[in-house]
């Protein structure tokens, strides 16, 4: 190679050697096998890259730490004696935010998956061919585009970032969740890497687009402090503010910590959930990572690095997530239209790439849907409801897939899920997003991230399934989410999601058991909803409603919440309908309807009706209704929920409201259609007390 | 002339090895990496490989013949050699390594013994072939250098 080429570019960062890029790209190659290393080096030189080699991971790390800007790309072998290649991958990603390509003689799918989940941008097999190496520079460009380095940030980059990361950046983008969701979804689907980048962006702050904060490099010491702080506080309770205080590092902002926390959570999930990925989830979610459950992480959760990306994308991804995936297909009434909600990427949370998030849902499922995994879709979504569990890592998966609520299947999770339960959870995740991380996955509501993305998403509390966090985005379904997260109130509502455990299996099986457990905090939340400003216009409505249901709420709070939400929101929804993805709104309504198991249902019923109208298009409503059904009926609901859920799920088209009807009666009041839905959905079994959980589902599903 | 003959001879030889399945296309890629500035590339690579393989195999034999079979290390080392051999194009040897690795992962001592024997066999034929190639290469380089002078 001619010397003058590359050498010149090395020193200055991007600029100088971007001129002739990819020529001169600086690569660091790591492999303990000297033969392979030598070959690799020669091949790379042949491609006109600039190569530095290291035959030990620790040496490579040192080189990188010494000057991260010296390299553009890292290629590393998987099997190395001194350090596991995956570990190196994580560290590099975390600290230096560089693209890493894995290399191995093994083509085992599990390994490849592991590589991806750990954030590798590519996975090559030995012996490496030159053709493959000729294209690796794309990973660098992609990342740079999305992740505008602070130092180099240029307006263009920023813009590019915006554009690119819009989808990725859940935080801010979510506001427009619908759109973003869609966009992001596409993006997500197309390019997981974007997530990483998006994530990176989010790194700095929740609102990356507008900020150009100097990127914080999470060095080992810093990260160690962080981890110590988190462990001290307890992962569940760790909130950025406290962590920040504990860490006591100058110059570190809460946002930095928050986004890092997201990533970290996603990362943890990833670690633990790799195995759990379920096809369902994936399918349901659309392949999003189950880690999404984190939905909250959506914003940044993307595995620390990657997660972050996903997180960002979450915003968008959520939308992309066709919640259906998670929720089982919101289309099916049950499917919490979370989609709308989550599409924002709620599902994304977990970092893995949102796309995988859905997959993660699969994972989540295990956690979430305690009862019925049938939710299938939702299962994946373990919906945030389950998020409790998932919260850690799974979260996102479920929700991630939510398609921009448009489909109303948002969370169809409920609908399709046999388990339905899950959906709810998932929705929650989505919702969580909106709600602040609601339940959905995060459990830590702290996540402000979620809010953002969810805004759009109807975060139906689905996520809330977990009593704690679920903010049941329920209210949020789709548009709601944006509303806000501020939500904390929503969270309250979402909290309905408390569904504790079963993420509202609303979906058909609504296993009442689950519901029981789920008792979604909705009841509890409802007050929130009413009170809380849930931005969610509809949510507010819902809240109000829940109050009514009072009794009902307890059960499924979520249901109630949803219920209320739906109720109130119904009205709003009508308005929203137009705006929202039809689905979402409805879902709430439905949920609301559903919620009032006890009797309140009627209101729901009414609401549902309205919702149905609204839902007509999007099942979302149905979800809600379903959810409501589920949630609501402690006893009745069970059926209701089931039916509702079922109904919803089934009747995708029917407006979820119809489903609510199915709730047995609750909704019947007005919802004829809902009944159907509900019936279908709710198998009645589900809804037992835990119903709310289902509700949550419904919500989720509705979403 | 001589050079051409030698080259021809080399190619023929390599082709025959490929026909036997001992080498695959990868070796060609390795050869392609040889440049004017680095004519010894192939030689160096081959030599390095043989050294590593010799050591590796000796080490693996020790693992296998010890009082207690050290499967963990055996697995790691067989994987390592698999990468090396496949990088240089020794496909059959790489496959033997892979099988040995599997047996080792399953803690199957008998399987390992068989796998090891097969690996050695494959390695020997590969090594022989590589040595011959190296010889021709050396000659070619020598000729070329003399020619330049």
Automatic annotation (TrEMBL), chain A:
Annotated positions of the 4-aspartylphosphate modification: 77
Biased segments, Polar residues type: 165-182
NCBIfam families membership: myb_SHAQKYF
Species assigned in the record: Quercus rubra (Northern red oak)
Subcellular location, principal: nucleus
Gene Ontology CC: nucleus
UniProt record, GO biological process: cytokinin-activated signaling pathway; phosphorelay signal transduction system
Chain ranges of the Response regulatory domain: 26-141
Identification of the protein by name: Two-component response regulator
Domain HTH myb-type positions: 210-269
Annotated region described as Disordered, given as residue ranges: 146-214
Locations listed in the record: Nucleus
Entry keyword Phosphoprotein: yes
GO molecular function, one term: DNA-binding transcription factor activity
Record field: compositional bias (Basic and acidic residues): 147-164
Bias-annotated ranges (Acidic residues): 191-207
Superkingdom of source: Eukaryota
SUPFAM superfamilies in the record: CheY-like, Homeodomain-like
Alphabetical list of Gene3D superfamilies matching this protein: 3.40.50.2300, Homeodomain-like
The entry's keywords: Activator, Cytokinin signaling pathway, DNA-binding, Nucleus, Phosphoprotein, Transcription, Transcription regulation, Two-component regulatory system
Family, per entry: Belongs to the ARR family. Type-B subfamily.
Transcription regulation keyword on record: yes
Lineage of the organism: Eukaryota, Viridiplantae, Streptophyta, Embryophyta, Tracheophyta
TrEMBL record, chain B:
Intracellular or extracellular location(s): Cytoplasm, Cytosol; Nucleus
Entry keyword annotation includes Ubl conjugation: no
GO biological process, one term: cytokinin-activated signaling pathway
Key words, A-Z: Acetylation, Cytokinin signaling pathway, Cytoplasm, Nucleus, Two-component regulatory system
Signal sequence residues: none
PANTHER family from the UniProt entry: HISTIDINE-CONTAINING PHOSPHOTRANSFER PROTEIN 2 (PTHR28242:SF30), PHOSPHORELAY INTERMEDIATE PROTEIN YPD1 (PTHR28242)
Entry remark concerning the domains of this protein: Histidine-containing phosphotransfer domain (HPt) contains an active histidine that mediates the phosphotransfer.
Protein name per the record: Histidine-containing phosphotransfer protein
UniProt lineage: Eukaryota, Viridiplantae, Streptophyta, Embryophyta, Tracheophyta
